[in-house]
Write a structure and sequence with these properties.
Length: 375
């Protein structure tokens, strides 16, 4: 079974600094410097606060907090989408000194390709996760427990990737192998090719399933240390969609060719995994809990994941509109736990009052129509 491995270097006190957004969403040219442990983005709805969080989320592999197409990210003109590209850059600093410069951008002539540079050299998007672990919680995730199994798999994969950088490649290789197998089954291709493709799918599938299970087990350890209050403590169970050992999965795929040909897809494997969540104490399914309990459990999972991510690399936690939806007791507990963690924290809100307990130590920006004013 694959295990989550830490970065070679121990966790260090590092932060994102000298952040720049160029032609991104409604930000023509925004810069954020002199950041802190807590960073607050305050402004009216639609001002561009979440756009900044989205930009930061793109300093990791994947499609960011909104999963938007690249062509949606470039700043729009009054008469329609811009034909130009966009750029996002940030420095990693340690004790005030820049240790790395990372960035991602899109060129106007390559609108479907996200480009990455690290320390001035071209790099792959997956390489970003070797420098920085980014986690987030947004209002759109509130329905996770009642969403599809696929949405929960993506949630688990994103958390896994923040700790195990190679996970994205394994997921991609598994998906490619399963597509090839589906095509061969449909065309009734050579059995020897099917044997080879199924062996690849099983190998990559075992890596994906092992990484997911290791993450859920590690989260379980962190969550078990949390008090049941003020946050509702979730209990997570990983339910694999098929055998987790490569040869056993390969044999099962071979045995089920007729069934899968009729279905038009593989009905066994990690692409059928499920994450079960219940509330500690009551044992009630998260999908049946109240909206407030679901929110509290999501926060608990995010905080536990932040602890794991910070053990290996510099980490950043993005929390969109989280404080306004918590009662004062839970809000105070959230700030206390965030302060104890190693991650740099970015939060948004329409007003400062929910953040009164941390404003003295926070870096604060007023966001208005894509412009920033340091408070």
């Amino acid at each position: 079974m694959a295990i989550l491995r830490a970065h070679a270097n121990p966790a260090r006190s590092m932060a994102l600094e000298k952040i720049s957004l160029e032609n991104f969403r409604n930000h023509a040219g925004s810069e954020l410097s002199k950041t802190a442990k807590f960073n607050l983005l305050v402004g009216d709805n639609g001002a561009g606060k979440t756009n900044i969080l989205e930009a930061l989320s793109l300093l990791s592999p994947g499609r960011g907090i909104r999963r938007a197409a690249l062509t949606e990210l470039a700043r729009q003109n009054a008469d329609g989408p811009s034909a130009g590209g966009f750029a996002i850059g940030a420095s990693l600093t340690e004790q005030g000194l820049v240790s790395a410069r990372i960035g991602t951008y899109m060129e106007p002539d390559q609108p479907r390709r996200r480009l990455v540079r690290i320390n001035g050299a071209d790099a792959s998007a997956s390489a970003l996760s070797e420098w920085l672990a980014i986690s987030w919680l947004t209002p759109t995730m509130d329905g996770l427990f009642m969403d599809s199994a696929g949405a929960r798999r993506r949630f688990v994969d994103r958390m896994t990737l923040a700790i195990e950088p190679g996970h994205a490649k394994s997921v991609s290789q598994l998906e490619t192998a399963l597509r090839e197998r589906n095509k061969l089954l449909e065309e009734r291709g050579d059995a020897r090719w099917l044997d080879a493709i199924e062996a690849q799918a099983a190998q990559h599938g075992a890596a994906v399933a092992g990484n997911r299970m290791a993450l859920i087990e590690a989260l379980g350890v962190e969550l078990s240390a949390l008090p049941a209050q003020p946050f509702a403590r979730p209990v997570l169970t990983y339910r694999p969609g098929g055998p987790m050992e490569p040869q056993t999965l390969c044999d099962e795929l071979s045995r089920q060719r007729g069934r899968d040909r009729a279905a038009g897809r593989a009905l066994t494997g990690p692409h059928r995994d499920e994450l079960d969540v219940v509330m500690a104490g009551s044992g009630q399914s998260a999908a049946s809990c109240s909206t407030g309990e679901q929110k509290a459990m999501l926060i608990a999972i995010t905080l536990a994941h932040g602890v794991l991510a910070a053990e290996g690399r510099p980490s950043v936690l993005l929390l969109d509109e989280v404080a306004a939806h918590l009662d004062p007791v839970r809000r105070a507990a959230l700030f206390e736990r965030l302060g104890q963690g190693r991650a740099q924290v970015w939060m948004t809100g329409t007003e400062l009052s929910p953040f009164a307990e941390i404003t003295a130590e926070a870096a604060i920006w007023q966001v208005s129509k894509g412009t920033l004013e340091r408070l």
